Amino acid sequence: MGTVEISPIDYxxxxxxxxxxxxxxxxLKMMLLVxxxxxxxxxxxxxxxxxxxxxxxxxxxxxxxxLVEINQxxxxxxxxxxxxxxxxxxxxxxxxxxxxxGMTSNDVNDTxxxxxxxxxxxxxxxxxxxxxxxxxxxVKDNGLTVMMGRxxxxxxxxxxxxxxxxxxxxEMNRHAARLIEMYPRLLVGKIRGPVGSGAGLGPRAxxxxxxxxxxxxxxxxxxxxxxxxxxxxxxxxxxxxxxSATIERLATEIRNLQRPEIxxxxxGFDKKNQVGSSAMPxxxxxxxxxxxxxxxxxxxxxxxxxIEGSILWHERxxxxxxxxxxxxxxxxxxxxxIAVKLSEVLENLWIDRKRMMQNILSDxxxxxxxxxxxxxxxxxxxxxxxxxxxxxxxxxxxxxxxxKNVLAIAGKRISGSELAYALDPKNFIGxxxxxxxxxxxxxxxxxxxxxxxxxxxxx
Length: 459
Description:
- By secondary structure, this protein is mainly alpha-helical.
- The protein has 3 domains: 8-90, Fumarase C, Chain B, domain 1 (Orthogonal Bundle), CATH 1.10.275; 105-129 and 158-358, Fumarase/aspartase (Central domain) (Fumarase C, Chain A, domain 2, Up-down Bundle), CATH 1.20.200; 363-427.
- Helix content is 63%, strand content 5%.
- It has 19 helices and 6 strands.
- The chain has helices at residues 8-11, 16-21, 24-44, 51-60, 67-77, 80-90, 105-141, 161-186, 205-216, 231-258, 287-301, 303-308, 321-347, 353-361, 368-377, 382-394, 401-410, 416-423, 432-458, and strands at 146-151, 154-160, 188-189, 219-220, 265-266, 350-351.
- Strands 1-2 form a two-stranded antiparallel sheet. Strands 3-4 form a two-stranded parallel sheet. A two-stranded antiparallel ribbon has the order 5-6.
- The mean pLDDT is 95.
């Protein structure tokens, strides 16, 4: 019986280059690279013949061809790493007495996971930088694009599209800073045996470990049991969850602003080929943004089992093992995917500036803060100005009544021309442009820092 694809990860979601990092073939290669690094280190310390590492290195290049045999072996041994060791020993001469000596399964498993995560971060930074660029382009082009602000789902003071997007850009910049600060704690390995003492590697255990991890481009887990500390994975997945929340929040904003009664911006739509609804041919739904929101919620769901999996008996048990076959690869693949998909939405976003202005001009009461400001600028105490404008608002049966009610109640305090100025949304956007400029400057620095991190990951 052939392989049955059940998970949508296999056939629907995720970039292929990211999914390949977590493929069985690549996983096996990473595990053998760990074994090879230890053999190479021991050979450098004259603890085994220098030909031994080369024997394994030759096998690594064709390791994928052993997968079927390894799977069959695991069915007999009921042990994943031992199945690999047995099959590799069958395919080699002279490895048997050296391979995996002094090590335990999680020396291989956890260190291989660090190698996978290193590869993932290299691609993920690419996705994050693309998203940062997409948001920054909107900020740069719309610092003065006036639109309705909304609080509690109700009309509020005017904002600019650039300012609105600068909030998301600033948030993503903080996530990037968290990623840069966190990744050295994540990319660690350990070669210390079943309880973390290194006893099976002899008196030079720590030297062998340090050299092995240097070869692999990883840092050393200073205090390990049989496992690398799962606080590292929890921190990493927590960051992915945090980023997913920002991405969902921005996708939700796009979905809301695309609603026909607002219609200020929205997803691009391929009118020639795309189908919005099987029942209603006219529909142009924000399906990509909805897809992003759906997957972001799934990503957040993987954090709880990872936390639960950190609570192990003594130096280790297996209660983390099965769940981490889901939590780590799925969180990585989907986090990268939603970043890419949202970038595509933003790169093809339609923006209706005329509709934005129409919406805000249709409700003069949205300028009530501006009117209060105008009155206080004329010397009216703030509390009195607020009450005057509140009464004018409450006495208005429609938005159009608001200007005349203000003049009826406060006409002695403010002239018609002064009120007209206060009611013009373009005159009440404050430091929006300056805030956008500051955020763009910070973002340029953030993107450079991410590029430097990417260079480190391949060094």
